[in-house]
Structure formats: structure tokens, C-alpha cells
Amino acid sequence: MTQQTRAQNTQQIDVRALEQLYGLPVSFPLTALAGEGNTGNVYVDLLKNSEGSMVAHFLFTPGSRNYWHLHPDAEQALLILEGEGYYQEEGQPKRLLKKGDYLVTPTNVKHWNGATENGACLCITVTDLTDKEHVERFGPVTDEEFAAQTQPAVKNDPELMAIMQRVYGKDVRNIGNLDLKTRELVSCVALTSMNAYQQLSTHVRAALQAGASPIEVREAIYLVAPFRGFPYVLNAVEEMNKVFKERGVELPLPDQGRVTDETRHAKGDAIQSNLYNGGISRAMSGLPGEMGQQMADLLTDFCFGDIYSRSGLPLEMHELLTYVVLTVLQANSQLHSHFMGCLKAGNSPETVVAAVIQCLPHVGFPTVINTLRIIVEMLEQNK
User: I want to staple 304 with a disulfide (CB 3.0 to 4.6 A). Which of 114, 228, 271, 285 is the partner?
Assistant: First the structure.
């Protein structure tokens, strides 16, 4: 935004009155932002808006904050001058920042910042100027999001939190061709598979913020049941529904089931046969009596009939997210066959690799490298 445009949307403020009201040394002129995408009273002093950067002082009054937003193709540095404030990137916990704290928001990362509930905050930002709009806004930070508890590690282990933010928000996110919605669905499935339901809540919120519908989130979590079992999914669904209630989502969600007891096997077999060629039947053929065929039928009915046939997610997403679960479980034999299933369902090798790498902050290098080695092996075999 140019200085002329901003001047048309601001109002000069009595700085001395603000100093007395909030007990902060405001040593620069301020104007009140009006219609600028903020909740509460926010004041600004635009210091520079040329030659590649925008530099601005901000005063956030208690409880005020800007909207969820990002800076297209531009990094932004934030330094807290006085008081305390909050900062949050999409999909990450809210962070408490104090005087002297400094951070850099990577390009195209959705975030917000503001003051705490109990005090004002003075800060300065330095933002790259590009040939694109300075900011893209996505709507206000809700009262529930603002009131969400900060993780204790933010205060007690800031170095670890800084490393985590860098890996989540920059390193992994910049690898591969996944959009943000798919990345968050991958995280939801990985965390469900690990029974990490406290962290799951954060990523359910992030998935919704990234554009996933409640049905897409639910179907992704349901998908885990055939591979990890119902207890893990029940825990995840409980946390998921807490987030939905926070967001005012009416429960239960619309039914997405598309089979009956009479049709589940035929519909499941049609999906399974399109992706695989009788592998499970051959693997179970050595079991006593009819149990081998019964196990093969159960897989067809449950995994492909009950789950894969459901509406809400396309087939390629079902297979991609299944590959995430198998990565978490290090299910090597299934990782071989399901890699080919991913490709037959319409995923590219690049997409599958990116989804596996997205799991790294959740499961670590050994688990991810195990899957990547299998993918390399499969690609070599199918040249």
C-alpha cells in the first residue's frame, strides 16, 4: 500500500495519551488503521515504503490483532520493541513473544500477530516489496483461535520451538508440489496413525484454514481405520469434532457412505481390482481352511468397500493418504504394492515423494528414508 493510499484510511492519534493509557514509551507518531484487516485498535507509523522494503512501527492495543494473512513472495521480519504479543503461523501453535524477540515469516506463509489479552505491544516489521500486492488477507482470527493456549514449550524451550517452526514452516513446506490443503491432510493422517491427538487438533484447524472442508478432514481420518485400527481413529475423531464445534460446524456431518451389506463386496472389489491384482489372496492362500480367502474378502469389504468407496475424497487422495499411514507404520511389503497403487490412482511419483517428506517432522528421518528407499527401488524396477 502506498503512503498516499494509507493516509486516506488512517486518523492521526494523540501519542502522549496512548503512552499514559498503556504505559509504553511511544516515541514515534501514530495513525489509527481503519478498514485495514484488524480486530481491535491497531496503530501504525509507516517509516519506509520504497526501494525493496516496507518498514513500519505498530502499536497493538490489548487483545487486538491483524487478520490471517500472507505476503505474496515476500519475507517479513518482526521485532518486539515493548510489551508482549502473540504470533501464529497456520498449522502451528500460537507463540508468546516478548521484548527483544525476533522472527522472520517465510514467503507465502499464512500467519497473524497481535498483542496479548492483558497488555499492549509495540513492534516493528520489515517486509520485502515485490511486484505483487503487499498482503493477501483471509479473514479475522476468531476469538477461539486467539484464546487458544500457547504450548508450554514456547516459553520454556524457545530454541526447540524455533527449530520446529523452521522445519515445519519453511524446510518441508518448500519440498515438492503439494498444495497447503494436501499437506495438512497428510499431517492429520500421520498424527492419527501415531495417536498424537493433542497435535492433531492444531492440524485439523490448519487444514480447515487451508481450504479443506470438514468432510474432507473427516474422510481422511476415517481412512486410517483399516490400517491402524478403530481405537486410534476414535481418539482422532473426538479431537476433530472438538475443533468442528469450535468452528460452528453442525454435527453429525452428512453421510458419505455408498455401500450396503449386499453391495460392499462388489463395489470394494471393483476398486481393488483396478489398483491391485489379487496380491492379498495369494499372500493369504497358505492359511488353514477357508481363513485365507476370508481374510482377503475382509480386506476387500472393509478397506475398499466401506472406506475407499465413500464420497468426500477422490480415489487418488485415498491412495496417497493410505501411503502416508503405511509410511508411519513402516509397512514395507505394503509400501511396495501401494506405491504402484498410488500411480494407478493418478498420483505422480513427485506427489507421493512430497507426501512422504511431509511426514518427516512427525516421524523423523529413519522412517521417511525407509519409504523413500522403497520408492527408489520401485522406480528402478519400472523403468
Answer: 271
